[in-house]
Specification:
transmembrane helix; 0% strand; mainly alpha; membrane; single chain; 106 residues; rod-shaped
Length: 106
Amino acid sequence: MKSKKGQVGLEGITKFIVGALVLAVTVIAVFLALTSLQNAGIFTAGSQAANDTDLIIGNVTTGATQFFTFIPTILTLLGVVLLMIAIAVLIVVVRRAGGAGTGGGL
């Protein structure tokens, strides 16, 4: 088994990106299904079912577009968290290395 030292948070970012892509595909599939249901002509124009279908399509598209406009912000926050973790790990490593040796000055 390979050691995963030095890969702080890469698994978390990979899972997040895969999850976002799965969410995008799901939203697209739901949108296409609702649009085909709307265009099938099974609802009479102006009926409650037709209006509900229009409202659901509007909610799905609005929710998806708003979520994916926040992705850059979410990824920036993840980057800041990873940077803080890397700095904390670096501090721990430097302290351990500094305490392990005997102090020989110039």
